[in-house]
C-alpha cells in the first residue's frame, strides 16, 4: 500500500480495517488516526511523526480528501473499533501491552478484555498517570523488556503519539493511540447511534450532546474550505 500526501501529511488509504492491520503487522510502527481536526492542527513535530509511521483515515473528511487525490478505495476506519479488531484477530497468538486512562476506567478495561477474549496474553498494563519522568522511563523500559507484539496507549493526542515514538525507538511493534476508547469500551462514553455514523455525521451528534465542543469543532470549517478549494 502506497501513501498519499494530504498537505504535509502522509496517509495510507486502506480500503478496509483488515488491509490496514495486515500492512501494520508487516511494517510495524505507530497507527495514527487522522481526522480533520488532527490534520488542521498538526504541528511540524506531529506531522513528522505521522509521516514516519502509519497515518490512516479516521474521519470522513480525510476520506473525501483521499478520494480527491485519486485514492478511490480509501475508507473510514474508526480507531475505537480498530484496536478491538486487532485483538480479536491476534489475542490467542500474540502478546499485548495496555496503557492509559483513569485508574478506574483502566481497571475495568482489563477486566472486560479478559472476559471478552479468554486467554488473552497481556504482558504489561498500567493506567495513564505518569507523574514523573522516572515513571515514564520505567514504563518505556518495561515495554522494551517485555517485548509485546501490540501496544495500545489511551492518553489523548498528541501526548500518546509522542510517548509511543519513544517506545518504538526501544522496541519495534505495532502501536496504536486510542484517545478515549477505553471509556467507550467500558460504557462510560457512548458513540453516536449507527445512523449518524453511517451518514458521516458523528461529529454533529457529539456537538449536539456537548455544545461546549463548538470552539474545537470550528477547525472543521478550515478543513471544509480545503475540500471545497481542493487544496490537498
Annotation keywords:
two-stranded antiparallel sheet, 51% helix, 232 residues, 6-stranded parallel sheet, single chain, alpha/beta, globular
Descriptive notes:
There is one protein chain. The chain has helices at residues 17-27, 36-41, 44-51, 60-68, 79-90, 103-116, 133-146, 159-170, 181-185, 194-198, 202-209, 214-217, 219-229; strands at 4-6, 9-11, 29-34, 54-57, 95-100, 121-126, 150-154, 174-177. The chain has a six-stranded parallel β-sheet with strand order 4-3-8-7-5-6, sandwiched between helices. A two-stranded antiparallel ribbon has the order 1-2. The protein is 51% helix and 16% strand. The chain has 232 residues and is α/β, with parallel strands linked by helices.
Strand arrangement in the largest pleated sheet: 4-3-8-7-5-6
Number of helices: 13
**Low-confidence region ranges:** none
| Biggest β-sheet description | 6 strands, parallel
Mean pLDDT over the residues: 88
Helical content stands at 40-55%
Counting DSSP E segments of at least 2 residues, the number of strands comes to: 8
Oligomer: single chain
Strand pairing plus helix content: what structural class?
alpha/beta
First-last Cα distance: 20 Å
The string of secondary-structure elements, in order, is EEHEHHEHHEHEHEHEHHHHH
- The shape, in one word, is globular
Cα gyration radius (Å): 17 Å
